[in-house]
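Protocol step 4 of 6: structure prediction from sequence.
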Amino acid sequence: TSAAATRFLDYIYEPLVTYDFETWNYDRPVLAERYEISDDLKTYTFHLHKNITWQDGKPLTSRDVLFSLKAIMNPYVDDAPQRTYYKNVEDAWASDAYTFAIRTSDTYFLNLQFMGGFAVMPRHQWDPKGMMDRFSISDLQNPQIFANDSDIKEWADSFNTNPLNRPVGDNPPKLIGSGPYEFGRWVTGEYMMLLRNKNYWNADNTYIPGFTEKAGYLDTIIVKSITDPTAMLTALKAGEVDFLPRMRAIQYFEQTNTPDFLERFQKVTFVVPAYSYLGWNNDRPYFNDKRVRRAMTMLIDRDGYNQYIGYDLGIPTIGPFYPYSPQYNQNIERWPYDPDEAVRLLEEAGWIDHDGDGIRDKDGVPFKFIFSVSSGSRNSKLLALMMKEDLKKIGIVVNIRQLEWSVYVENLRDRQFDCVMLLWIGGLQSDPYQIWHSDNIGNRGSNYIGFRNAEADSLIIAARFEMDAEKRDAMYWRFQEILHDEQPYTFMYYQRDPGAFDRQFKDVKWIPIRPGYHNTSWWRSPNVSRPGMAP
C-alpha cells in the first residue's frame, strides 16, 4: 500500500527536523544542526550539519533542500495534498552550502513542522540537468509563468513517471538517501528490502528521544507483502517473519495464547493517531441533507461492530483529532445507535416509501447507494454486509462494490463514489485544512466527500494562524461541534493495533506517530536462533 511505501522511504530520506516524542513538538533537529526563527515568526533559517553525505558519497547541501521544496511546490507534480501546506511560502533560498531559509507570508502554527519536516531528496539524482534551478519559489506560485513555461511541466512529468518512484524489477534504479538504511530491492507483491547504511553520517546518535543506541543495528529489514491474515500469522510462527505489526483481533485474543507462542513472541497493542470513518459523498442526492447523514450514523451499531470485529480494541471518537490531544473536544457525546430516531430523521427529510415497493424514495429517486470497499479490507466488507442487512429492514438498499486498491484510490480522488470506509492517519497536532476546507474539494484534493460549511472554513483558516494554543483549540472545539451536527463522516474509532514480535529482539520501542514503531533501535544476537525460526 501507499502507507507501506511511505514507511519504507522514512528509513531512506530524512527531514531537517522531526518530532520530539517527549514534548509532542515538531522541533527536534535531524539534518539541521540548529535552526532559528525570526521575531515575526515568518522566517525559518536552518543550518545543516557539514558532515552529511548521500549514500553515494556526495555531500548533502542546502541546494538539495531547496530542490526538494521546489519539487513539492511544482504545480504539476502529483502531490496536491501535501502542497496545500506550502501555499504560504513566499520565498526560499540557499545563502551558502549549509544554510537554507524559508520565508512565509503568515504565522501558521505548524510552520516549523512543514517548513522543516519534508523529506530531503538528492538534487543530482532527481534533477540531474538542473531544470528546476531556473525557477524561483515565486515562479512556481505564479500561474502566468507555470502555465506558459513548458520546462516546469516537462520536469514534473519526468518526476511523476520516474522509475525511482517505483524501483522494481531485476535491475531497478537505486534510490539514494541520507538515512540509516539504503534501498535494497522491491519485488512487487512480495517484499521490499532495506540494507543498513554502513556509512551513515549520524551513526553515533539518533534523533528519536530515548533511543541512545547507534542508529540502525539490523543489517537488513525486509517488509514482506502478505495480504492474508492467516498466512501472516503462519509466517510468524514458522519464523519466516519476526514482527507482525497488525493482526486480526481474533488472532490476538483467541489464537495466540498457547504457552509455545507466548514463550517465543511478545504480544503488544499500540495506538497511533489514525481513525476509521464512513465517508458520505455530500453531493449525492441521498447524502446532501445533514439529517440523512445523522440518520446513517444512528443506524450503524458502532459499538456492536467494535465488539464483534474489533474485540473492543477501537477507541471511540467524535471527530478527526487525536483523543489524547487538547485539540479533541471532550464535551461532545457521540450520536447513539438509535434506529427509531434515524427513521424519524429520514422521514422528516422526505425519504419515504411513496410507491409501496419497500424502498424509500424522494423526488422519484430510490434510496439505493453503493458502498465501495477495498477488496483487501476484511473489516470494511464485514461492516458493509452488516449495513446491507440492517438498512434493508428500513427500506434502504446497499449495493457493495469491491475494488482493487489502486482503482479505489482513483475513484476517491475523482469523487466517484457514494459511500466509502477508510482510515486517516494524522499527527499529534492536526490541521484540518487539507481534509475539511472547501478549497480542497475537487482537483484531486482530500475533501473527497465534498463537505462545505462557511463557518467551518472560517474557523479552519483562523485557527491556522492563531499562535495561542488555548485560543486555537477553542476554535477546533467549535469546529468539531459543527462536524458533529453535520455528520459528513460517521466517525468510527481510533486504532489500537494488536501485534507480536519475536522475543529475540531487544530495545523494541514504540512511538506515538505512524506506524507506531521505528526499527532502527531493534537488535538481536546473531548467534541466537530457534527451531523453525529465521536465524
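Step 5 (inspection) to follow. The domain at 272-495 is CATH 3.10.105.10 (Dipeptide-binding Protein; domain 3).
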